[in-house]
Design goal:
The chain has 217 residues and is mostly helical. The chain has nine helices and no strands. The longest helix has 38 residues.
Length: 217
């Protein structure tokens, strides 16, 4: 294996391991804000306001990544390229005082948390692939620095997907309610409609209550 390929593999491994561990923290934050988009990045900004040293710490990691790209050429020291492997590991302990399992309560590994974790990780892989193509091994740091923003993006996609699925359930249930009411008569059709309307109210889609009566979004 050539030295350049070995460096790339080592940097990517460092980035993937760091992302896999850091995402546990950000999913825990997403749970605390009830998976609302834009709230994760807001709490990240609050952490920077309360602990400015965190911003400097992340800036140090960025300097290491930049040095791995330019320092080896400017100073004629190829060994500096390996700083791209160290830079992702430098931000692994942050945010400070936020352990991987949470503080007041442990991370609840629910299906929704699993989807949020997977969504964040996929977006990191996509962005990381693009930045590695442009910047080389140092690019693995970029998606880690924007994890909170990627978390909000993943939560936004999940929210839109859930709303669409809820509306589809309401539309399907409305059609079945109309078909059931006519031929069967009696109270069965009314019972189906009552159950379906309760489902729409329970799922809480944006247009779910409206679609129960009109069958339209």
């Amino acid at each position: 294996m050539s030295p350049d390929l070995l460096l790339l593999v080592a940097a990517m491994t460092s980035g993937v391991v760091t992302a896999a561990l850091m995402n546990l923290k950000w999913v825990r934050v997403a749970q605390r804000v009830h998976y609302l988009p834009r709230e994760v990045a807001r709490l990240e900004r609050l952490w920077f306001d309360r602990q400015p040293l965190g911003a400097l710490w992340w800036g140090g990691a960025a300097i290491l990544a930049l040095t791995s790209v330019q320092g080896s050429a400017w100073l004629n020291m190829p060994e500096l390229a390996w700083l791209a492997v160290i830079a992702p590991l430098m931000i692994l302990p942050t945010p400070w005082r936020l352990p991987f399992r949470g503080v007041t309560s442990p991370l609840a590994w629910t299906p929704r948390a699993q989807r949020a974790y997977a969504g964040i990780f996929v977006l990191q892989l996509v962005l990381g692939t693009l930045t590695v193509v442009v910047l080389g091994p140092a690019g693995v740091l970029i998606p880690l620095l924007f994890t909170a923003n990627l978390a909000d993006l993943a939560l936004g996609f999940s929210l839109v997907s859930r709303a669409q699925s809820h509306d589809e359930v309401c539309l399907s249930g409305s059609a079945q309610a109309q078909e059931s009411k006519a031929p069967r008569g009696g109270d069965y059709g009314k019972l189906w409609q009552d159950l379906h309307q309760g489902l729409c109210r329970h799922t809480g889609g944006r247009n779910s209550f409206h679609c129960c009566f009109t069958g339209k979004l």
